[in-house]
Design brief:
Layout (H helix, E strand, L loop, with lengths): L1 E2 L4 H13 L4 E4 L16 E4 L6 E5 L4 E5 L4 H9 L3 E2 L12 H6 L7 H4 L2 H4 E7 L5 E5 L9 H7 L8 E8 L1 E2 L3 E9 L2 H13 L6 E5 L11 E9 L1 H11 L4 E5 L1 H12 L1 H8 L4 E6 L5 H5 L6 E4 L4 E6 L2 H11 L5 E6 L18 H11 L15
Parallel strand pairs: 1-3, 2-3
Antiparallel strand pairs: 4-5, 5-9, 6-10, 7-8, 7-9, 11-13, 11-14, 12-13, 12-16, 15-17, 15-18, 16-17
């Protein structure tokens, strides 16, 4: 049965009624993350937040906004652009995603290096428990931290704990000028040496993404370091001058700059659309180990080289599973981030969840003791 609540009370009633009758629940926004994390298990009740799409409070001068979880992400960002403001998460599937889905999946993109993830941008939240309680955590003041940790529990929980109804964000002003500088290298050694040199400099790019040759950025069979420079005109010009000493460079301004980062955000959706049995492995490592992870790969890979996250693209799910098994012995944290829904039940999506998994299990038991809500969505573990 499908429910599309139009108010927070409707959402609370739908959840509590299902819980009272021990009916399993599939909770989602627009379903854009169905290939992400664990399987979307068949459930007795299906609840979507897409009808909860209002802007509740927006104070451009205070750099804060409060919106409902079902608001489409592209509408949300378009509204902010009218005042040259932003929430720079850059999630994949942005064209179909909702605000709640982006937060619940803890999605982020190239600019996480400078601005962080959703945990750094969310200042408050209103969510609904299976008991039908509407819980307010945090508020609309950036310095208000009362109850903030409760909201952070739901970020990245994939709807396994409660239903996000409202999210409050602190906003960032858009920079005066932006430019992309692409630097090409013949091998991984020189590319990572340039990355290290850049991180040690006074420059603070918004993004430092590295693509290996199989990723074929701009059709180029080279290692490409993509640097997103932001600031005033003088600062951006300095980036270009200093990066010119790193290697061969191409500068992108205006529409080409915007298009490059749109394509970067869409790299995963486009790959998956082109490879029906494809899968994406996400590896988190130290900045030092990132080269060891990326250098030997013969398949497309893209790394957030300022934060130690690498995305590896396999056109066949079995290859991703074999890679993950080998990576488990390296000490890296790795998961199959995206895979076809039909294959997830046979895969070990998250082979080494870590020491904090026991705490996560206790939280699940506290919020959802009968295991009714989004079963298995947290990488088939919770």
């Amino acid at each position: 049965m499908l429910h599309t609540p139009e108010t927070h009370d409707d959402l609370a009633e739908a959840l509590s009624r299902a819980a009272r009758h021990l009916r399993t629940i599939c909770l989602q926004g627009n379903g854009s993350k169905s290939m992400m994390a664990g399987p979307v298990a068949c459930a007795d009740e299906n609840i979507t937040t897409t009808a909860l799409h209002r802007v509740l409070e927006y104070e451009p001068r205070d750099l804060t906004i409060s919106v409902e979880a079902g608001l489409p992400w592209h509408e949300f960002t378009a509204l902010l652009r009218q005042n040259r403001q932003m929430v720079p998460l850059d999630p994949p599937f942005a064209g179909r995603a909702t605000v709640g889905g982006v937060v619940a999946s803890n999605s982020s993109g190239p600019r996480r290096r400078l601005y962080g993830t959703a945990r750094d941008m969310v200042i408050g939240m209103r969510f609904v428990t299976l008991a039908g309680k509407l819980v307010q955590s945090g508020g609309m003041v950036v310095k208000n931290v009362a109850g903030l940790d409760m909201a952070k529990l739901l970020i990245g929980s994939f709807g396994t704990l409660a239903a996000i109804a409202v999210v409050n964000f602190k906003l960032q002003p858009m920079p005066e000028v932006e430019r992309t500088v692409l630097v090409s290298f013949a091998d991984s050694k020189t590319a990572f040496a340039a990355r290290a040199r850049l991180l040690a400099s006074v420059l603070q790019p918004a993004a430092i993404d590295l693509f290996n040759p199989p990723a074929a950025v701009h059709g180029n069979a080279a290692w490409i370091l993509a640097v997103r420079a932001a600031g005033n005109q003088t600062a951006v010009d300095r980036y270009q001058r200093e990066l010119a000493s790193f290697g061969d460079t191409v500068a992108l301004d205006g529409a080409p700059h915007e298009e490059f980062w749109r394509q970067t955000e869409d790299f995963t959706p486009c790959f998956l659309a082109a490879h029906p049995d494809g899968a994406v492995v996400r590896v988190s490592s130290t900045l030092t180990d990132l080269e060891k992870c990326m250098a030997p790969l013969a398949v497309p890979a893209m790394a957030r080289t300022g934060s130690g996250v690498c995305y590896i693209y396999f056109d066949e799910t079995g290859s991703a599973a074999r890679y993950l098994a080998d990576a488990a012995g390296s000490g890296w944290k790795a998961v199959i981030e995206f895979a076809p829904e039909a294959r997830k039940s046979e895969l070990e999506l998250w082979p080494a969840p870590g020491a904090d998994f026991e705490t996560m299990g206790r939280l699940k038991a506290l919020f959802d003791p009968s295991n009714l809500l989004n079963r298995g969505r947290l990488y088939h573990r919770l």
